[in-house]
Amino acid sequence: MDRSIFLDVLYSLQRLFVGYIPAAVAGSLLGYLIGVNGTIYQILRRIVQIPHSIPPIALLPLVLVILQEKESAVVIVTFLATFWTIVINTAIGMRHFYRQDKNFRVAIFHLFHALKVGLWVAWFTVIAQEMLIEQKGLGNLAWEGYKAVNLNYITEAIFYVGIIGFFLDQLLDLTGYMLARIVTINKK
Predict the structure, then answer these.
(1) What is the DSSP letter of 163?
(2) For the chain, what percentages of helix, strand and coil (3-state, to nearest 5) are there?
(3) What long-range pairs does 97-106 form, CB within 8 A, spacing at least 24?
């Protein structure tokens, strides 16, 4: 088993961002639209919980059968998992925003919380799918290490999954903090 960890990292990140970025944009927009009106929020929040309640990995067989292509299936499942998570968390955040006298720091906090939770879900989903469909990536590196009883590959994959997840989480935290500071400075 001769592998390039750099390529595995790139494969996983590509799948992550191709599924996550459109889901973050669309999910934030829909979550905002649901959250700005209390009546719409009360009606739709239960409905949105239905697709959100389906474990993302359970969608993989269905999407594989429909698309007949592994790479597209991974991206679609990652998108769907992330989309519903961000919709729900953004809508909740908007309700808090309106309850707290339209405090933009509250809106920024909740939006970035929604983006972070969506990112976690997307990252976990990508890694799990790579284990199942035997595509290159960090999830597949860990799974192949397991099948070959190679603790070095397993440990290396887990290490990179954790480091990348931590880095992306911190990047969103920093961005949210800086945006909140800009809003606070501009209000003075």
Answers:
(1) H
(2) 90, 0, 10
(3) 97/35, 98/35, 98/36, 98/38, 104/183, 104/187, 105/180, 105/183, 105/184
Contact 153, 1 (CB under 8 A): yes
Confirm whether pTM is higher than 0.70: yes
Q: How many other C-beta atoms are found inside a 10 Å radius of the C-beta of residue 138? A: 26
Cβ–Cβ contacts within 10 Å for residue 148, how many? 12
Contacts of 79 (CB under 8 A, 6+ apart): 19, 20, 22, 23
Give ∠ CA 72-53-51 in degrees, rounded to 5: 55
For the record, the structure tokens of 87 come out as: 């919709």
6 DSSP assignment:
H
Q: Which pLDDT does position 134 carry in this prediction? A: 79
Cα dihedral 126, 129, 134, 140, rounded to 10, equals 50
Under 8 Å between Cβ of 83 and 27: yes
Point out the residues of the chain with pLDDT beneath 50: none
* Count of all residues that appear for the chain in the document: 188
Residues 6+ apart with CB under 8 A from 85: 27, 52, 114, 117, 118, 121
